[in-house]
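so the lab meeting is tmrw and i was supposed to have these ready like two days ago... anyway. pasting both below. for each one the top line is the aa sequence and the line under it is the structure tokens. i havent really looked at them closely yet so no promises
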Amino acid sequence: MSSLTGPRGAAGWATLVLAVIIILLGLPLVYMGAELAFIGGSWYYVLCGLAITIAGILMAMGRVAGAALYLAAYAVTWVWALWEVGFDGWGLLPRVLGPTLIAIAVLASLPTLRRLQERSTFPAGKAA
């Protein structure tokens, strides 16, 4: 979060911590996903890792777009998981449990992200 939109209060800091966690989860997905893709595996992990890393960066900057990007990646994760294993609950569990818990936290961070974004937006016609 920039100095203009720096975290204020517990909710601001919790949102920043969540953003850092998302970044730290996304980076290994990109790296290990690339290794998998280069030996003929799915490109899902690379693309999802890139999406959630960028989402985490945007959230750390106090942008609602970061939450929207994470939730879009989450929706794609469900589509991919259903394509991989169908409606087998035990097959779905390891693919969607973690992303679902993070999605709940991202949804909970939306009010804070909206406040941070509003605080960093200048009204039209006014200089900084």
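ok protien two:
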Amino acid sequence: MLLDFICGTGRRGASLCGAVWLLAMGLYGCGGEPQVSTSYGVVAGKRDGNVLEYLGIPYAQPPLGELRWADPEPPQPWDGVRDAKLKGNACIQWATGIPAFTPNEDCLTLNIWVPAGEGSHPVMFWIHGGAQAAGSSNELQYDGRKLAQSLNVVVVSVNYRLLVSGFFALPALGSGEALSGNQAIKDLQAALRWVHEEIAAFGGDPGNVTVFGESAGSTNTCALLASPKTHAPERLMHKAIMQSGACDTLGIMTQEQAQQEGMKLLAELGCLDAAEPLQCARALPIAAIRDVIKFNLFTSFGWLLEEWPFRPGLVVDGDVFPASPVDLVTENRGYDIPILLGTNKDEGSLFAGFLAHPDDAEGYADFMEQRYAGQGDDIVALYPFADYQNAGSAHADMRGDLIMKCPTLNMARRYSAFNDVWMYSLEQDVFSVVMEVIALGFKKNAPPLGVFHTADIGYLFEFPLLSAILTPSDRTVRDLFQQAWGNFARNGNPNGDGVPVWNAFDPALNNYLVISGQPENRTDFRQGACDYWFQVGYGF
């Protein structure tokens, strides 16, 4: 490395020795640790094999005090060298007791993994999932080191506000300002803006940023694609990968609906009748606000949206989203952003498994009519009891279509009218100790896990606890995922080295690539079922 011998740190333009701060790989200080100068100060990371890591870098000020629920503000500059060897705090979310999820409002940080070698690398910006209510880039399964090394890309992961911190809307009350909601999306846009301005110093190409995410992270990828603020005044993203989630997977709220959620929470907090309701809520400990909601992600898998004690979701606020994100993202606004999107074969197993199901066909019909009033007969006809292992399996197939597959197909059909789209279905069974433990909580006549929701993550990031037990077919799937995602990040097309021919999506064919030990192109993705849900409406 050039400049390995240089010692000294400092603010931009004031480094010792008057050296120019370089470059794609950053600068090494006296102790051999990689250092990079940003607009806010110097960060010192660490080397892990052939990858440099810079962790827990703030992209915005902590949203504390008066900044709770406010738009993200740029971080404060710091003097000296900021240690960037540990990830930042997870954001406030549903209570788990798991250390990685210990809540803290001071959480607006990102992590960067940079492959060894000179040059300007494509950037892959990862958004974690968790139903907008949980999750963190701190999770071991989202370690970007292997992806950066295997694909020769810069990987960025981000923490953003969740649950009541990230989706809280209120009308103006007392002297307080109105809150439009969408704080989470504003955080992600702030993080992308930070990447646009700073990533070149780490070796990333700000003109080639792929945003990718899974579940709610995929929904938020779609949201960023939809929001005009992502594209102007600077273009903050250039490609999108959506894994198991579309803009409307978790529903979309009007401003009035979101404000009603906020007012309901204010009442539960005892702040609605205060002289200054917003100040009252801002003065409360955030954990106390979270605990009022009594939200548990695992049991909520079986809920309908109207059953959630607090509904975090995208809001048509006239600002981040001047119209419905679905309409915005499927209008041709000349952004020329290709997308790769898809789902897993058994998306619904988690969303049906936590509900008890009846034993026979008659009970199944009654269950569906009670759960989905007015649609029971149609659902039983589309998903006949006799075609499945049990009632839970039939319900899981239906929930997978309703929540994930049909929203994804709708996105592909509408977006492909003016941009390139590639669609996939992951159909390779995978064993997961974590998911098997979670499935111990499944109720009577539950579906088997199958190719469950989130199964794709282990293949893509090569999660260490998974890679040790990969079969030859699993390795084929892992290699396909990584090569296709890398090709797409570089060139806007998944085809290329290590990937079988993957036909672009054609709405006349509803075609997709089956990702399995024997990949193949197929047509008519969920044709009959999704045609029904397109007519009557779909979503969580």
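from a quick look at the 2nd one: The CA atoms of residues 222 and 247 lie 5 Å apart. Residues 338-536 form a domain with the Rossmann fold fold (CATH 3.40.50.1820). will dig more after coffe
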